[in-house]
Each structure stands twice: as structure tokens, then as C-alpha cells.
Amino acid sequence: MDLTVLIPTINEGGNLRSLISRINLVLDRERISHEILIVDGGSTDDTAAVCAEMGARMVREGRKGYAGALETGFAEARGDWILKLDADQSHDPDFIPRIWRARDRGDIVIASRYVRGGACYNEFSRKLSSRILSAVLRRALSLPVHDISSGYRLYSRKITDGFKFKSTNFEAEEEILVRAYAAGFNLAEVPFTYFPRGAGRSHAKLIKFGWSIAMRCIPLWKLRNSLDSADYDERGFYSAIPIQRWWHRQRHRITVSWARGSDRTLDAGCGSSLIVQSLNNVVGMDFNFAKLRFLSRYRMPLVRGSAFALPFLDSSFDCVISSQVIEHIPYDEVLFAEMWRVLKPGGKLILGTPDYSTRAWRIIEPIYGVLMPGGYKDEHITHYTRAQLGEILSRHGFAIDEVAYVGGGELIMRCHREEMPAAAVASGPARASSAA
User: Fold this and answer.
1) Suppose 184 and one of 15, 290, 407, 410 were both cysteines; which one would form an S-S bond, judging by CB atoms 3.0 to 4.6 Å apart?
2) What is the CA radius of gyration of the chain?
3) CA separation for the pair 122, 305 (Å, rounded)
4) How far is 365 from 379, CA to CA, in rounded Å?
5) Cα–Cα dist 322/324, whole Å
6) Chain Cα centroid distance, residue 165
7) Which fold has domain 232-434?
8) Counting Cβ atoms within 10 Å, is residue 360 exposed (0-12), middle (13-18) or buried (19+)?
9) Nearest residue to 58 (alpha-carbon basis) of 47, 67, 68, 66
10) What are the start and end residues of each CATH 3.90.550.10 domain in the chain?
11) What is the pLDDT of residues 3-57, one digit of tens each?
């Protein structure tokens, strides 16, 4: 089945008969195989009778609240895509073909009142509060969406299968956007003209709704600023915080300038950084699938793999980049042996990691840990110094050509591959200090 039309309801019998008829007319005309799924929150009117008469499938919500209705609908849906719209006829069924045709642009497609071409003809107070809310949340949560609170949406099953809401009410609309985008999925908007509801009265209370959104925004903000967000590295390059933006851009400038001109490059542990996006003839590799999913929108070769066993043939690359990776994983000599193996003789290795022998880094990291708990400080489990790293690289057949620092604490080395010395037998983790 192509599509499940999901409609959460409470006492919307006055609207459902007309709405279901219009939906079926539009989808049959477009030859979109579909079902209409009504998730009822305990209606006391004729909702059940209308659903039976009109051939819609009705189920009771599994738990109370708007989020519970969505969760129940997602679990019950049979379509490859799920179109969620309101029962009050403010979401025009004639718009369905437009949002359906945009499904190749995003994993969630939003009918947007606030992008160019959209409009909202609600009463002034509601329109103003909605615009302010969307603008504030767009900024606070760093989402590329203008109409964050729009409930007229098309969802791919890749997102909805098994999705469990932490919200209870209408803040669920924001939660699923944030969690989907943080997992690397695409969001798209289609211009939509909104008119007020048909029969009945709205079940959304502005003050209660705004308070719920504000409270739920705190954990969502933490998620967006954590390493778990697929776009974490890309956001750093464009950060509104000047020192963070400067740091990422210095790292990018040094690394990309050294890597330019290489015929074939591997960025091992690429994350979502601008480094892999800026290079030609590059393959991005990461163990975190969400970050690769995010990068896939840029149409570059991507591989999920481990730094301990690079999934490439010997001598495959002219340049290998490992930027801010080795400090996040347990020390093992095989990391350096693998980078040597996939490089061509004479090929470049560009390696970046904090230098724990510098005073600058010993000052910076504790401060960062206070400002961003759960961030990079807690993720740095292996600590290297310039001297230790130089000795390790030498044993594994690398000659250091150039060294640079960002902020006096982040070390970046440019090396080239020589023949493997006889002494390069794995000798354990004694050369780097590991701190869990």
C-alpha cells in the first residue's frame, strides 16, 4: 500500500464524513493505493458510526494524549508513507497530491505556511503566536524548517517504524522533527495555504501548548548540541559561537589545503564535517550510520566501516585523513597499520588529535567539559602527545612532513608513507595513555 492517511480525532464526527469522502476522491483520482486510519481519543459523538459508514478504519489510541495518538497510528499504519492531517478540515485534502509528489525531497515533508508561497488565514493572535513559536524553535533547535508546528506532514516509514514518543501532547510535532533530523534524515517543506477549522472547536489551548513546547525544548536542545546529532560537525563550521566557528574553520583550512591535489582521498571517521564535503575524489567513511545518512544528501561515495579494519584494498588511496578520530577510540596499533596499508607508497596521511602535552589543551578541555557536559571531553578516551604520536607513526612507516596547531592545543600532522620498518610489530598500548 502506498499511503496511510492518519487522522487523530476527538469528537470530530461533524467533519469526518465530508473529510473522508474528499480524501478518497483525491487519492482514487491520483491512483494512490491507500487506507484512512482514524485514531480516536475517546469520542462521545458519532465518530465511530461515521467511520463505519465511510469505510475508514478506526482504532483507539494506545495511551492518552496527542503523542499517544500518533504513536498508535504509526504502529497501525500499513502504507509505505504516512500522511498525518487534522480532522477539522483546516488541512485541505486537495493539497495531498502536491505533498505526495515532494516525497523524493525529504523523509518528512511538511505543508508549510511560512515558506515563500505559503499563507495563513487564522485569527491574528494564533497566527502571531505560531509564527513566533516557529521562529524561536527554528533558532533554538537549529532546524532547517520554517513551519515547525505544522501538523500536516508526510512521513516515511523509515522514521515512524518503532518510533516511541517521549512527549505527551502537541509538542510531539517538534520532537519527531528534531529526533529525525538528528538521526540524519531529510526534512522538506512545501508551500501551503492554511484556513481555520470547519465544524467544532479546537482542542489546542495556547498557553498550555506553549508551556509544553518550552519544557520539551530543553532535552531537544541538548540532543541537537550533542555528538548524537548527525550534523554536529557541519554545524560547528557555521556555529553562531565565534570561537567554535573559528576553531572548525582553522581545522578545515589546514586539513583541506594539505589534502588538495590528491587523486583519491579517504576521510576515515568523516562525521558530517566540511572537510569531506570540500574535497574532490573523496570517499567518506564512518562507523555512525546516522552521520552517513546525513551526508548522503551531498551525493558523495560513503562507506560504513571501522578504523580497526578499513574496508578497502591495499594501496587504494593517495591521501588518508583522520581528523579528531583516534582520541575517541581505544588505543590499538592496528589503527596506524591500517592507515599505512590502504595508502599508496608515498601517499599522504593527515592526522589530527588534541595534544595533551600542551598547556592550551589542558586548559581548554576542562572548560569545554563544564560548558558542554556530555560533549567531546567525555568522549576523549585516549590521550596523545606530539612526542608519543611521532614515535608511533615512525614505527609504522610514516615520516612527518609538517605540523600545525589550532588554538595551541589541537595537533594536525601531515606525513607520508614509507616502507614499513621491521620494528613495526604491534607492541601494545604503552605509547599512549588511555583514560576512560
Assistant:
1) 290
2) 26
3) 50
4) 11
5) 7
6) 17
7) Rossmann fold (3.40.50)
8) middle
9) 47
10) 3-224
11) 999 999 999 988 999 999 999 999 999 999 999 999 999 999 999 999 999 999 9
Residue that has been written with the C-alpha cell 589550532 in this structure: 406
Q: What are phi and psi of 13, to 5 degrees?
A: -55, -35
Residue pair 18/87 in contact (Cβ under 8 Å)? The answer is no
pTM assigned to the model: 0.86
CA distance 408 to 357: 11
How do strand 81-84 and strand 153-156 relate by DSSP bridges?
Answer: antiparallel
Return phi, psi of residue 374, to 5°. Answer: 85, 0
C-alpha cell at 272: 558530517
Domain with CATH 3.40.50.150 in the chain: 232-434
Q: What is the pLDDT of residues 199-229, one digit of tens each?
A: 445 545 556 666 667 667 888 888 888 888 9
Please tell me the distance from the alpha carbon of residue 75 to that of residue 274, in angstroms, as a whole number: 37
Name the class of domain 3-224.
alpha beta
Q: How far apart are CA 403 and CA 390, in angstroms?
A: 10
Going by C-alpha positions, the residue among 386, 388, 418 that lies closest to residue 402 is 386
